[in-house]
Amino acid sequence: MAATHRIAAGTVVAAVCVASLAGCGAGADGTGERERSREKAEPAPGPKSVVRLIGDGSTAYTGAQPHLPRPERLEPGEKPPQFVVFSWDGAGEDSQKLFSRFREVARKNDATMTYFLSGVYLLPEEKRDLYHPPRHSPGRSDIGFNDRQGIADTVQQLRLAWLEGNEIGTHFNGHFCGSGGGVGEWSVAEWKDEIRQAKRFVKTWKTNTGLKDAAPLPFDYDEELIGARTPCLEGQENFMEAARDLGFRYDTSGVNPQVWPKRKQGLWDLSLQLVPFPGHSFEQLAMDYNFMVNQSGTATQGDPAQHERWGDQMRDGLLQGFERAYRGNRAPLIIGNHFESWNGGTYMRAVEEVVETVCTKSEVRCVSFRQLVDWLDAQDPKTLAKLRTLDVGEAPQQGWKSFLSAAPAPAPKGAPGAPAKKKR
């Protein structure tokens, strides 16, 4: 698929600001805990047998998404689970087949993930003029477009991913960064227009490709789309205002320390986090691109003799960040990636090893952002406020049972975590 191969050239130059920002960064008590494994969680019902096509049949309503556990409120004194979110910017399937590879990795390790789809990955090259990017001429995109086969392959992976319980978010369209019309300069109205276009390309891929007989995506994208990550982590403030007006529930476009999240402009701020950078005195953004820039610069294929060491460095940094949360404040760990074989694919190997190491551990839940915000919304706000008093890596001094001993307020009727309605 041409589109994902072109993303490297568009991102490497434009996102250096994020890398430099990252470069400037600086066995808990189990008493009273109640293990709640994903196998025991009450799953949402699977798709209905009746499929209701939407628009031209590119998408369809098929019922509630399968394999989503019901979120529950923490009980008094209960230690929170360790959430880990693996997310992917771009989310297209090309000849590298990294989308399908990590779907398999997730399935084998009891994980779900979030895939941030770029809308132009579902728009064929010959229809590029249908895209009217803010502050750029029609048909312009810094990551290119796609072809019919690439679109068919990507749609297949999106369909299967959603049916397996993964989330489909958005990475918008043209991936414009920096000055001269980059997303950091866009107004709220321009962000809303970009979001509407990203949705439209998902909802009209059959019309735009002529693949009329292909199976639809099994979800209503207007309902499915609840969060995003902006290109190069730019333009967050105006994007969040636009996203809130359009019904989004979270954003993951900033940089945070490893502490419990809070709301910002009405959305959950689930920004990428700073984690240890082995061999360095500063911390690093938990994203493959940023590790690469701080190892090989803007060269996506640096010294082959260093590839293995660079991948190990990313893997070990992520694992160190995981351990200090797991044994400390239990803040959700947020990790971002791209389907790219930068530096010989060493970062893909590193991510896979992290998934295999952490996702099968006791009390760990590797989830999508949607599942995380569902859980956060289910909690007593006072409990979350108490969790936010813990610093990076800080475990409660008297143990979790004492720290969260107060009984939480009951969840409002119909809210996530509220008792299920009794059947008559």
TrEMBL record:
Chain residue ranges for the region called Disordered: 26-81, 401-424
Entry keywords, A to Z: Signal
Keyword Signal: yes
Comp. bias regions, Basic and acidic residues: 31-42, 69-78
Coiled coil ranges: none
PANTHER family for the chain: CHITIN DEACETYLASE-LIKE 4 (PTHR45985:SF3), PTHR45985
Biased composition (Low complexity): 406-424
Protein name according to UniProt: Polysaccharide deacetylase
CDD domains: CE4_CDA_like_3 (cd10976)
Signal peptide: 1-28
